């Protein structure tokens, strides 16, 4: 049995992949939670936008941690559903509905499942990857902004609950800063009439203001476990516009 087990949602590409390949613990068991099988990492397949699949992840947490004898277990929720940018009331309602489920509901349900599965006797930790969108009202990103704000406030509450209970896991939200990912590159082609941030993101990419995925991942790992009194950790500059 490995001494460390790490679950990362969305480890097939982008920041999730960076987090997976920069895990700092020797011989850690790294598990990708995703719709797609990763060629190099053990994968539990599920879909953020399909609640019926979430129990697969919850069951995996329970089965692996029920008799866990290692030193640490960490879950990093990084995945989100892209392709939902656009003004409220103007886009595809089915995509909008799926984005709400995937980006607002799924993180809280999966976080709850991990907390339930953790046992005393080893370090356990839960990381929610959030964004400056949690406090900046980006037009065309209402669901994403609201979902990240919700995740951060959930972390604030749960961190206090765990402190009162005196048991793990530690819980923290992390805004990783501007990260160069496939999703970011795809976003610059969105009609600015639906997502006004697109030209600003393109300009920031061209100016080299984005972290590469490995640097962003190492920033995150170097900050863990977090200061027990901090709910949100911040990295990098914000991409914004007026």
Please give a structural write-up.
By secondary structure, this protein is of the alpha/beta class. It has one domain (4-234): Rossmann fold, CATH 3.40.50. 39% of the residues lie in helices and 16% in strands. It has helices spanning 14-21, 54-65, 93-117, 142-165, 182-187, 198-206, 213-222; strands at 4-9, 29-34, 42-45, 72-77, 123-129, 170-175, 232-234. It has a seven-stranded parallel beta sheet with strand order 3-2-1-4-5-6-7, sandwiched between helices. β4 (72-77), α3 and β5 form a beta-alpha-beta unit.
Keywords, separated by commas or semicolons:
alpha/beta, Rossmann fold, 7 helices, globular
How are the SSEs ordered, and which strands pair?
Blueprint: E1 4-9, H1 14-21, E2 29-34, E3 42-45, H2 54-65, E4 72-77, H3 93-117, E5 123-129, H4 142-165, E6 170-175, H5 182-187, H6 198-206, H7 213-222, E7 232-234
Parallel strand pairs: 1-2, 1-4, 2-3, 4-5, 5-6, 6-7
Helix pairs in contact: 1-7, 2-3, 3-4
| SSE succession | EHEEHEHEHEHHHE
As residue ranges, the low-confidence spans are none
Shape descriptor: globular
Q: Kindly estimate the percentage of residues that lie in beta strands according to DSSP.
A: 15-25%
Structural class: alpha/beta
């Amino acid at each position: 049995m490995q001494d460390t087990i790490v679950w990362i949602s969305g480890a097939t590409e982008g920041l999730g992949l960076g987090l997976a390949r920069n895990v700092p613990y020797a011989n850690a068991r790294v598990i990708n939670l995703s719709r797609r099988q990763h060629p190099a990492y053990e994968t539990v397949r599920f879909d953020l936008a399909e609640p019926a699949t979430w129990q697969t992840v919850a069951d995996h947490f329970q089965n692996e941690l029920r008799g866990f004898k290692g030193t640490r277990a960490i879950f990093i929720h990084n995945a989100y559903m892209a392709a939902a940018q656009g003004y409220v009331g103007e886009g595809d309602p089915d995509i909008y509905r799926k984005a709400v489920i995937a980006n607002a509901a799924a993180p809280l349900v999966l976080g709850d499942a991990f907390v339930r599965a953790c046992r005393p006797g080893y370090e356990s930790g839960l990381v929610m990857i959030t964004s400056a969108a949690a406090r900046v009202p980006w037009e065309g990103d209402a669901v994403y902004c609201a979902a990240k704000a919700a995740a951060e406030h959930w972390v604030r509450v749960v961190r206090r609950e765990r402190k009162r209970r005196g048991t793990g896991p530690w819980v923290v939200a992390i805004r990783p800063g501007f990260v160069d990912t496939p999703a970011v590159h795809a976003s610059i082609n969105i009609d600015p009439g639906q997502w006004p941030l697109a030209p600003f993101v393109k300009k920031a990419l061209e100016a080299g203001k984005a972290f590469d995925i490995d640097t962003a991942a190492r920033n995150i790992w170097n900050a863990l476990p977090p200061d027990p009194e901090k709910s949100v950790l911040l990295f990098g500059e914000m991409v914004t516009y007026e």
